[in-house]
């Protein structure tokens, strides 16, 4: 089926939040969140339980009104007629009608969504060997997830938000579905925001990350820029005192054994990337390694006190703050 990809009138980011917050009775679920997700990126949303990931997605989907600040979706208000058709959100509960068959579920998707892509939706269902005639009520949790994903992709959204979508899917199907999802996203220029606790699965998949902790943004930006502006350093060091080799750097995390210290560091000032691979000035006897995305994320998750870092493309524009 032909589908015209809506081209934004300007280069509005897929998501832009300024001072975004939401408070429940027990306290702030999300607070003072500033970040920007440019269109076309595959962004991993990471954080410990209760960090605010689902809350952020619900706000961006227009399911909850912000308690403070704002979030814009392609420059518009979440849930508004301007943005509703461009966004698909798959929450953790994956609501489907149990009495409908898979075919009837996809037909409902077609009737409700003007830009419906039947081929894409059927492809996802068929790859799981799911009979179109099967009733949703008789499907396993993983099979329901597949149907829910087919519905979300069939909508051909410009922004696809997936809240731990594959938690009940077996490892082989998980890998296959991730590949299919990304294939569709890259082909259509879809922006994807995907939350997951499986950090290894985000490596090689995401080109952007957003890390939340305690309802606040801890880390946000382009994966290559973030990896380039951090180093894992490993060297001999005894005792609990300061590690002289790390002076002049921002230490995100420092772990010690009796004879060795391992640290994730970044430049002390701003977000500058030291010039060249040997520009870190750590000194002889230390291994200076580029971290993997999983290592970088784990270090930030283990060190909630580390100062937040947003790469330049992840910072909201000054105009956004005035809206
Ligand atoms: N409906 C609600 N009523 C009251 N508090 C809520 C509600 N939903 C979420 N919260 C609280 O808001 C905070 C953020 O929750 P949220 O579900 O957004 O976190 P999360 O990062 O998605 O967690 P998880 O990884 O466990 O899914 C938590 O402290 C949670 O207890």
Automatic annotation (TrEMBL):
GO molecular function: ATP binding
Keyword Acyltransferase part of the UniProt annotation: no
Recorded superkingdom: Bacteria
Keyword ATP-binding in record: yes
Domain ABC transporter, first and last residues per copy: 15-239
Cleaved signal peptide residues: none
CDD domains the record matches: ABC_DR_subfamily_A
Keyword terms, alphabetized: ATP-binding, Nucleotide-binding
PANTHER family cross-referenced by the UniProt entry: SKFA PEPTIDE EXPORT ATP-BINDING PROTEIN SKFE
Protein name (Swiss-Prot/TrEMBL): ABC transporter ATP-binding protein
Species, as recorded: Kitasatospora kazusensis
């Amino acid at each position: 089926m032909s589908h015209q990809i809506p081209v934004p009138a300007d280069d509005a980011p897929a998501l832009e939040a300024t001072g975004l917050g939401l408070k429940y009775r027990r306290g702030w679920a999300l607070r003072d969140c500033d970040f920007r997700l440019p269109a076309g990126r595959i962004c991993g949303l990471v954080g410990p339980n209760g960090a605010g990931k689902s809350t952020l997605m619900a706000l961006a989907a227009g399911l909850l009104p912000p308690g403070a600040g704002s979030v814009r979706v392609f420059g518009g208000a979440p849930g508004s007629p301007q943005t509703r058709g461009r966004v698909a959100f798959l929450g953790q509960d994956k609501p489907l009608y149990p009495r409908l068959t898979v075919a009837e579920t996809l037909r409902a998707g077609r009737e409700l969504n003007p830009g419906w892509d039947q081929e894409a939706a059927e492809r996802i269902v068929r790859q799981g060997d799911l009979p179109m005639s099967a009733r949703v009520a008789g499907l396993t949790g993983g099979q329901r997830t597949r149907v829910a994903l087919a519905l979300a992709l069939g909508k051909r959204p410009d922004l696809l938000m997936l809240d731990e979508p594959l938690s009940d899917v077996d490892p082989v199907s998980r890998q296959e579905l991730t590949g299919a999802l990304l294939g569709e996203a890259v082909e259509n220029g879809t922006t994807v925001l995907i939350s997951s606790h499986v950090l290894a699965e985000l490596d090689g998949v995401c080109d952007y990350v957003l890390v939340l902790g305690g309802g606040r943004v801890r880390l946000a930006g382009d994966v290559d820029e973030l990896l380039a502006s951090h180093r894992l350093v490993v060297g001999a060091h005894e005792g609990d005192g300061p590690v002289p080799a790390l002076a002049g750097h921002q230490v995100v995390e420092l772990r010690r054994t009796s004879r060795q210290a391992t640290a994730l560091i970044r430049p002390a000032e701003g977000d500058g990337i030291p010039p060249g691979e040997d520009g870190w000035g750590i000194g002889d006897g230390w291994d200076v390694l580029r971290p993997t995305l999983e290592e970088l994320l784990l270090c930030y998750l283990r060190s909630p006190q580390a100062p937040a870092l947003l790469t330049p493309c992840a910072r909201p524009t000054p105009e956004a703050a005035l809206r």
